[in-house]
Amino acid sequence: MQQRQRLVLLIFSLFLVFQTSNGHNITRLLAKHPSLSTFNHYLTLTHLAPEINSRTTITVLALDNAAMSSLLSKSPSIYTMKNILSLHVLLDYFGAKKLHQITNGTALAATMFQATGVAPGASGFVNITDLKGGKVGFGAEDNGGSLDSLFVKSVEELPYNISVIQISKALPSAVAEAPTPGPSELNITGIMSAHGCKVFADTLLAHPEAMGTYEDNVNGGLTVFCPLDDAFKVFLPKFKNLTASGKESFLEFFGVPVYQSLSMLKSNNGLMNTLATDGASKFDFTVQNDGEDVTLKTKINTVKITGTLLDEQPVAIYTIDKVLMPRELFKAAPTPAPAPAPVEAADAPKASKSKSKSKSSPDLASDSPADSPNPADQAADENAGASFKGGRSVAVGLSFLLVFLLL
Ligand SMILES: *[C@@H]1O[C@H](CO)[C@@H](O)[C@H](O)[C@H]1NC(C)=O
Ligand SMILES: *[C@@H]1O[C@H](CO)[C@@H](O)[C@H](O)[C@H]1NC(C)=O
Ligand SMILES: *[C@@H]1O[C@H](CO)[C@@H](O)[C@H](O)[C@H]1NC(C)=O
Ligand SMILES: *[C@@H]1O[C@H](CO)[C@@H](O)[C@H](O)[C@H]1NC(C)=O
Ligand SMILES: *[C@@H]1O[C@H](CO)[C@@H](O)[C@H](O)[C@H]1NC(C)=O
Ligand SMILES: *[C@@H]1O[C@H](CO)[C@@H](O)[C@H](O)[C@H]1NC(C)=O
């Protein structure tokens, strides 16, 4: 009897421990399995780990170290690795049981690769088929029907949030494996011009020093928030009024010297330094989330992210609905309504070191393990506390249920 009570207590406290890590952490889940360590490492390097953590109802098709070696023997760039590995994240939950009981014995699953929009047509889908003898085969849909990657075992299952299963080898896919252009080949002003930020892009091109700062950061990580044409056109008289150095700082203010995916921005409330940040000249803004919306604010005004023009590590470009005004260059409009209380003191800025880093060495996007303490992980860390409460009640509820069952 005593033993049983101790067991109950143990389970109860296990649940309490569990809830502090509420919301799965793929890095931690895989860390328990040394044979999957290379795969785990690359999920971090490619910044896929925070993307996986931010989703539920997904399945990760993990590869053991041998399968990863054979994949890496082709020396894919880190960007290509990201495409390949994102093909291994299915946007549906397949536990071991469900895999063996697929309706009609075959199914197509959408993947994170398909969700990036990089994959054309059917190439982002994975075919799962129950084969003879209880085997389950996997194949990329653009792969001519070959299903020679086989289910090995279930690794972790947290129904119905995330299932990690091991498969025998990487899913071959010509599209995912195609060499991706490196970031230095990106024409960021071209992308902006073609998608509603032409006035901003042209202004940037007309100011080579600011443009140079953007270019210097493209390899090491860059996030651009470009004001849409209508907003920027109206703003031009104010811009023209600035001094030469004011213009440069102003233009640099719309770039952040780290890569931030939308899910990182959504989980990352706080101060963000910009390309214009330089010692005492803060030129920073606050990122705030309101449901699905992400807003950027200074003491002068608040703008909203309205779209994604590019999100391919290490570069992201988003559109914003208005021109964000740095308080270093503009005075708050003399309207009677007082500006909202400052929230500036909140979080320590994390981009501060990144600026000097990315300015001095634009070549940081290597696939070397030294890359590790990356902004993705930091952003994810800051997110850790966010969904805490829901987890607690579920965990406590489950614990009581267990207590009941055991007594
Ligand atoms: C299974 O096969 C039957 C008969 O071919 C079809 O009517 C049904 O829609 C299929 N179900 C699924 C989930 O594909
Ligand atoms: C999956 O591939 C197999 C073999 O090529 C094919 O017979 C099956 O129809 C495919 N399943 C789906 C859902 O497309
Ligand atoms: C980038 O795009 C702009 C606008 O489309 C174009 O004028 C420029 O020539 C392009 N630069 C390169 C290097 O391709
Ligand atoms: C330009 O600057 C002058 C002097 O500071 C100011 O009076 C004027 O309102 C400014 N114009 C715009 C469009 O901001
Ligand atoms: C996930 O786990 C890893 C390894 O334990 C840790 O470094 C990271 O901070 C965790 N991330 C979150 C979001 O908790
Ligand atoms: C699934 O995710 C929800 C929300 O993050 C969490 O409350 C729940 O505990 C998770 N379930 C499992 C089995 O981890």
TrEMBL record:
Residues 23-171, 184-324 form the FAS1 domain. Keywords: Cell membrane, Glycoprotein, GPI-anchor, Lipoprotein, Membrane, Proteoglycan, Signal. Transmembrane segments: none annotated. Residues 334-389 are annotated as: Disordered. It comes from the Eukaryota. Residues 342-351, 359-378 have a biased composition (Low complexity). Residues 1-23 form the signal peptide. Belongs to the fasciclin-like AGP family. This is FAS1 domain-containing protein. It comes from Hibiscus sabdariffa (roselle).
